[in-house]
Amino acid sequence: MTTVETPLRRRKGLHRTNRLLTVLLALATLTVLVPLYVTVSMAFKTSEQSADGNAFSLPAPLNPASFAEAWQLTRFPVAFGVSVGAAALAVLLTLLLSSLAAYAIARNWSHRFFRWSMIYLLVALFLPFPVVALPQIQLTALTGLDNPVGVGILHAMFQLSFSVLLYTAYLRSIPIELEESARIDGASTPQIFWRIVLPLLGPMNATVGIFAFLASWNDFMMPSLITSDPALQTLPVVQNIFQSQFGTDYNVAFASYLMAMAPTIVVYLLAQRWVISGVTQGAVKH
Amino acid sequence: MTALPTLPAAPATQDAPVRRAHGGRVEPVFYLFLVPTLVVFTAFVVVPALIGIFYSLTDYVGFGEWSFLGLRNYTALFSDPRILESYGFTLGFALVTVVVAQVIALALAVALTRRIRFATTLRTVFVIPMVVAGIVVAYVFNFLFSNSLPALATAVGFGPLEESILGNPDLAWLSIVVVSAWQTIPGALLVYTAGLTSIPNELYEASALDGASPWRQFRSITLPLVAGFVLINTILGVKGYLGVYDVIVGLTGGGPGTATSSVAMTIFGGFTGGDYAYQMANATVFLVVTAFISVAQIVATRGRAVRL
Prior knowledge:
The complex is a heterodimer of chains A (286) and B (308). Chain A has 17 helices and no strands. The two termini of chain A are 13 Å apart. Chain A is mostly helical. Chain B is globular and about 75 Å long. Chain B has 13 helices and no strands. Helix content of chain B is 72%, strand content 0%. Chain B has 308 residues and is an all-alpha fold. Chain B has a single domain, classed as Orthogonal Bundle (MetI-like fold).
């Protein structure tokens, strides 16, 4: 999505830059940077220093020991692994189910069954999780899915409507001639899907994947309600031990928050062009 | 996301090639592509929803025997101050937050697409909140609201904020607005940036020659041309805000008292509180309210939104 970049550049080169606006925007970034700074600096303080409640002071002396304690208290490797597993399942299911369904719908739009299926799937676009939460908690418990697998499946279910919508709209922009000539060459529909359609869907796969990943990875509500075994909770959910445990040191809590936030921030900063174009694609491709 | 309003256009572009390819008959393998998705969606989403609606007509407590109550759960809802309060809080919170978040997101997007230095770097920073978990952000802000803000207020002698706003029944909701907006502005910002960069620069240059002020340009060019994006952002935003939960858990836990209990929190209480059927009636009403608000927004703004 270089279209976002080029006009910015072109406008920049055309006239003098607006200094005042640049300064104002830089000041506005403090609303993002200050909470992040507080998290990092609190995490490196000693218990004594963090107890004074001054969020903005620099850590003196620097104390990295909080991370080891947070690592153990939250059983970080387990929670991280559970989060990765649930998010991976959610992303894979979302990509697979919604691209196949969207392909079938887009190529058979003239048939009532496929049109109505689309409307049926879109119903969930306006269905908040709390509405179905209580029966879902019961059903997942009954079927043995009250664990990260169930969380991954349910996360995928709540991404379906939006993803099918994005894929169907995108499929309309792909010329059908490619598929038709492959068909004349003797390719079957499944072959056409895997070899031609799925690669063509590349940019939309990225968009759908990013949305599905962020929604699953950062969710607290669903895993906290669905997963019955506290040992199998995701990274955001295990952070609550610092709220319930009395006398927990702030430095340990913030070290844990930092470890929970860092993975996505680091990945985002490394791949920011790709992430932003992926998200933007969902908004403007059509 | 703009696919939402343009969807009905699909048949016109699709019909002809499909008929040519299949002669009006559906190749069976397409059912194989679609039906599994329909089945899991039905099993995991639609069936639970129907079960919930069914139990909302009973006195079911989550296990054991039950009998039909008819609509008695529903009539009880409308005279339950706890329920009414949660709807009042949730609707008010969603309204305030969507206005705050959209105004800031649009202002930032307009500023970021002007002739400024470091536009890409600044945008990168503004988008960071999108990738972090709401609950963790809420915990961090919880510390700031309960320690740093009162300390700052005391230092400058500003009375109303010297006590933590999280413990103040009249002000606690503001903390939830702040954190929810903080978290959702980036998504809206990206949508607006995409919308703004698609406006031809010539429009601004021509109007500048005619002597239009920046504010006049914003009102007469920018705003009408991003109206479609405002609609999408507002609909998705309101739907998200109505289901607010994570941020409240991290900030106030619904308190003080029940001052910041959202509808979602009240519903979840039904699983431990023994009023399962009652809360399912609440969930059903919530579904109707959410759907009504979403549809009303689409109907009210359709046609007025100018699309490029």
